[in-house]
Design a protein that fits this description.
CATH architecture: 4-Layer Sandwich
Distance between the termini: 32 Å
CATH topology: Purple Acid Phosphatase, chain A, domain 2
Number of helices: 8
Oligomer: single chain
Number of strands: 13
Structural class: alpha/beta
Strand order of the largest sheet: 3-2-1-12-13
Low-confidence stretches: none
Radius of gyration: 17 Å
Strand content: 15-25%
Order of helices and strands: EHEHEHHHEEHHHEEEEEEEE
Shape: globular
Length: about 270
């Protein structure tokens, strides 16, 4: 009975299936964790979601592409260049897909394996208690009657500094950006969202170089940063190895921290 964490799938269903065959994944006994961005940019979004929805044991966090799809489906955003979610938008189960995604968490904290999974990252200014509080606020907004208002409000890079006196809308937007879009960060809680490469903008560092002391016992697992490839550091794994860009889809087995990679099978 193993637990496997998989990086950004982004609709690359043939590669996902090949990776699961490689690791001998057993749906009846194993648990599949997914670090967000389940869909978009790939061609097989319906197959990906249907497969994940049918698995008996999953732990999933939402990524920025998952949230963007929900906003499009809720008619508060439009398709962006490169979006490939038309197969979901035209599907008779569209509402079911959106509702299922809305039930997924923003952060998973597992005290059995001492693992925290987020899509993009966690700011070092947040304690574990604060991270849980902010994740829950986003999850409640997505699951409740205010989902559409939340999805409309979430777009934007401002505010970029965490403060206690932020309005509710600004707090939710910045918290969502921390969880689902963050790459570069300053120790004062400042967020920089325009740089995606492995070259840091002046004054900023990768968010994972620092963490709050309350997170010291945990291994943090994340996706989102394809430019870095697979990241392996003490108590930290980055699993977005750029499958959608023709590279690999990566899995981490939690029991022994072994990494598995599957070359892109999308054709």
């Amino acid at each position: 009975m193993s637990h496997f964490v998989i990086g950004d799938i982004q609709g690359c269903y043939p590669t996902l299936k090949a990776l699961l065959r490689q690791i001998n994944f057993q749906p009846s006994t194993d648990t599949l964790w997914c670090a967000g961005d389940l869909i978009n940019r790939g061609k097989h979004n319906v197959d990906t979601l249907k497969f994940l929805m049918d698995l008996p044991r999953t732990r999933i966090v939402l990524g920025n592409h998952d949230l963007h799809f929900m906003a499009i489906a809720s008619q508060v955003s439009k398709l962006h260049k490169g979006d490939t979610v038309a197969d979901l938008l035209d599907h008779p189960d569209l509402t079911l897909f959106v509702d299922w995604l809305a039930e997924q968490p923003i952060m998973v904290c597992d005290d059995v394996h001492d693992v925290i999974m987020v899509h993009a990252g966690l700011p070092a200014i947040w304690s574990l208690e604060e991270a849980r509080l902010q994740a829950k606020a986003i999850e409640q907004a997505l699951a409740g009657h205010h989902r559409t208002a939340f999805l409309k409000n979430m777009y934007g890079n401002q505010p970029s500094i965490w403060r206690k006196d932020l309005t509710t809308d600004d707090r939710l937007r910045l918290a969502t950006n921390f969880f689902t879009r963050m790459r570069y960060y300053q120790a004062d809680g400042s967020l920089e969202l325009t740089h995606k490469s492995d070259l840091a903008p002046p004054g900023f560092e990768p968010w994972f170089l620092h963490r709050h002391p309350s997170l010291s016992r945990y291994t943090i697992v994340f996706g989102h940063w394809a430019a870095l490839g697979t990241v392996q550091r003490a108590n930290l794994f980055g699993l977005d190895s750029g499958c959608i860009w023709g590279r690999q889809l990566t899995a981490l087995r939690l029991e022994d921290k072994r990494i598995f990679s599957q070359a892109n099978q999308e054709g």
